Amino acid sequence: MSLPSTQQQWVIKGQDKGFDGLVREEGPVPQVGENDVLVRLYGASLNYRDLIIPKGMYPFPLDLPVVAGSDGAGEVLAVGSKVTKWKKGDKVVTLFNQAHQAGAIDARGATSGLGGVLDGTLRQYGVFNEDGVVRIPANLNYVEAATLTCAGLTSWNALYGLKALKPGETVLVQGTGGVSLFALQFAKAAGARVIATTSSAEKAEVLKKLGADHVINYREDKNWGETARKLTPGGVGVDHVIEVGGEDTMEQSLKAVKYEGVISLIGFLGGAKPKDNILEPLSRICTIRGIYVGSRQQLEEMCAAIEANDIHPVVDQKVFTLDQAKEAYEYMWAKKHFGKIGIKIE
Ligand SMILES: NC(=O)c1ccc[n+]([C@@H]2O[C@H](COP(=O)([O-])OP(=O)(O)OC[C@H]3O[C@@H](n4cnc5c(N)ncnc54)[C@H](OP(=O)(O)O)[C@@H]3O)[C@@H](O)[C@H]2O)c1
Question: Which domains does the chain have, with CATH numbers?
C-alpha cells in the first residue's frame, strides 16, 4: 500500500482564543527515522488537559504549534532500519511522556508529552520512537485502547507507583471522570474496596454497577471525607485517595485518609487555589504525592493487568470522528460526558 504524502490533523496554534486555537489542517505524513515506527492511528481520546491547553490553563511545558492529543492507538505500518521491537501489523498504544521509560520521571521525561511538547495523536499517521508505544491489550478495540495513555496510566501509577495497592485495602475515587473510573476498575480487579463520590443519583447507580462498594453524593454530603472514613473497616480511613478535585476536595480527602495512606494529587477540576493546610499531612500522618501520568514500564504492566482481567475502559456513548474533534472538545467542556471521550479516526 502506498502512503499518502499528506493527512488531516488538528493543531494547537495558540492559547488566547480558546478552542478557536485548535485548527484542522492538512499536514505532512511524517518520515520514519531509523529508531521509529510509523503508526496508522485508528483511535484517540480526550483528556481535560487537552481542553485546557488551548485555554491557556495548562501548568506543564508546551511547545506550540503542536498536533493535539496524547491518547492514540493504531497499527504499525512501517519500522525504521534499527527497530527490533515492532513489525508491520502490530497494534500499539501511545506513551504519554515519550521519554519516561521506567522509574521516577525526570526533566527530560516531563518535557516529552504528546500533544503538548511533541506532536500528538489527533491525526491519521504518527511517527514515534519504538520505545514510545506499547502493545495494546488483546481484549480492547482501538478507541478503548487509546484511553489508556493518560487517564488509565495515571490511575495505575497512583495505585502502584509509590505504595502498591493490596487486596482488602480501601480506595476513595472522586467523581465519574476517566481517571476515577479507571481507578475504580483497577481497585476492584485487585480485590480492594472502593468508595466513590459523585454529584448525581443516576451516576451513583452506574458506579455501583461498576463495582463501587459505597457511593456518596458529594453535593448532598459536604462532609463526605468523614463519611468515607467511617465506611472503612474500624473507621481507620482509606489507604488511597484518587484526588482530582484540587481546591474543592483536598480538605475532605485529608479527612478520609488513613495514617500512612497516600493521597495521589492528580487534578484540579474544582480549582487550584492553595488552602492553608500545609501541616495537615503531618498531623494526619499521610503522604500527598503529585503525579504526572506514568512510565512505559508501568504502561506495559497495566496493559497486562487489563488483558488478564478483561477490563474494558468506560467510554462515553457518544463517540466522535476526527472531523468532529472540536465538537468533542466542546462536549467535554460542557461536562456532558461519562468516562472517556472516544474519537474514531478513519
Ligand atoms: N497529573 C496527571 O498526570 C493527570 C493525568 C490525567 C488527568 N489529570 C487531571 O485529573 C483530573 C481528572 O481528569 P479526568 O480526565 O478524569 O476528568 P473528567 O473526565 O473531566 O472528570 C469529570 C468528572 O469529575 C468530577 N468532578 C468534577 N469537578 C469535581 C469537583 N469539584 N469535585 C469532585 N468531583 C468533581 C465529576 O464527576 P460527577 O459528575 O460524577 O460528579 C465530573 O463528571 C483533571 O484535572 C485532569 O487534568 C492529571
Answer: 6-147+315-344 (3.90.180.10), 154-290 (3.40.50.720)
Average pLDDT along the chain, 346 residues, taken 10 residues at a time:
90 95 96 97 97 92 96 98 98 98 97 98 98 98 98 98 98 97 98 97 97 98 98 98 95 97 94 82 96 98 98 98 98 95 97
Q: H/E element holding 196?
A: strand 193-198
Q: Is the bond preceding residue 65 a cis peptide, omega within 30 degrees?
A: yes
CA of 177 to the centre of ligand 1 (A): 5
Q: What is the pLDDT of residue 272?
A: 84
d(Cα 187, Cα 212) in Å, to the nearest integer? 10
In this structure, the residue with its CA closest to atom 23 of ligand 1 is 177
Angle at 36 between CA 30 and CA 38, to 5 degrees: 50
Kindly list the protein residues whose Cβ atom lies closer than 6 A to any atom of ligand 1. 47-49, 150-151, 154, 174-180, 198-199, 203, 218, 244-245, 248-249, 266-270, 291-293, 335
Long-range pairs of 97-106 with CB within 8 A, sequence gap ≥ 24: 97/292, 97/293, 97/295, 98/128, 98/129, 98/131, 98/132, 100/293, 100/294, 100/295, 100/296, 101/131, 101/295, 101/296, 101/297, 102/295, 102/296, 102/297, 103/295, 103/297, 105/292, 105/295
What pLDDT shows up at residue 60?
85
pTM, two decimal places? 0.97
